[in-house]
Amino acid sequence: MSTSSTVAEVVSGYADHLRSRDVSEHTARAYVADVSDFLDHAVHSTKLRQGSGEGHLTTASGARIDIAAIELDDLRSWLIALDDAGAAKSTVARKIAAVRSFFAYGVSNLGVPNNPAARLRTPKKDSRLPTVLKPQQAADLISAAENHRTGVTGVGRRRKGGSADNGMDTSGLMADDSSTSDPAADDTTTGDSAQHGKNDPLDAAKRIRDAAILEMLYATAVRVSELTGLDRSDIDHRASMITVLGKGNKERRVPFGTPARRALDDWLAARELFTGPHSGDALFLGVRGGRIGARQVRELVHRYGSDDPSAPDIGPHGLRHSAATHMLDRGADLRQIQELLGHSTMSSTQIYTQVSMQRLQDTYRRAHPRA
């Protein structure tokens, strides 16, 4: 490491290292933010500012910090500050994993003498069960998008057999696609826009897309990043299967049912309304023509979920939890659910047995006369 290195340069090099190890983009961003947070904390230590100089880095403000002099107590000081700020145990556990990874990188690439984070103890996560929908609430959530497009003409009309008819003039739609600088705002179908759904072809197509997204999230129990990463070529229409790229770049095949297949057919017929120079083969598109992002998917799940005030407010991962729990309730084998979800270990899947048992206990207490 050069004595003139800056914190930004070192953190950037660490980010490149994470990407080279096939760490997911979400995890890489979180780890980089966590390491930056720790270094911001450490720069206030007088000891680290007055180190030997071999590991000195310059911050954006011109301050200097000797990362080679960082010790276990410096990390503990940071963790105490996080605890005082009310950080959740899961957040602290991730931050510990991030600094462990960073200092391991530092030992191999920056001349740091040892990994002080290796001796940190990871706090046990709170044994909080995931929030799930009841089966009828899940059906109602999906129906919310379906109902919003009831009576829409010209876009994705179901023919006999479930295919879609897309006989509309698409001229002028791409001009509307770039009318705002906020892609997420372009992708919202609420307020006045919702009132014009029958007359606005693009708005109608968005609802068809939203229905397909909700169907696929629940039918396949995929992660939101796996859904947004899907290409049209990942769909095996004959077998009703998709190929998803999960954590650690592991591929798996996931089945989907007839309702999801019909919703996909409708969307694929309407997809051309969104296509642009950057669409590529992406399955789900935003109105600007690019691959839809995880944020837009989260927003639409919350938006349609708000139609049912009795249901808990969940995001895409809540639909994943719900699908796994409902399958277990209906007799699916835990090992099969593990394969469906792409869990590397059974321990991650076993939490659904606890959710299922909790639901059984709640039902028993409500229904049994001597509970």
Automatic annotation (TrEMBL):
It comes from Brevibacterium sediminis. The active site is at R223, K247, H317, R320, H343, Y352 (o-(3'-phospho-dna)-tyrosine intermediate). This is Tyrosine recombinase XerC. Residues 175-194 have a biased composition (Low complexity). The gene is xerC. InterPro entries: CB, DNA_brk_join_enz, Integrase-like_cat_sf, Integrase_catalytic, Integrase_recombinase_N, Integrase_SAM-like_N, Tyrosine_recombinase_XerC/XerD, Tyrosine_recombinase_XerCD. It is found in: Cytoplasm. Keywords: Cell cycle, Cell division, Chromosome partition, Cytoplasm, DNA integration, DNA recombination, DNA-binding. Residues 5-107 form the Core-binding (CB) domain. Belongs to the 'phage' integrase family. XerC subfamily.
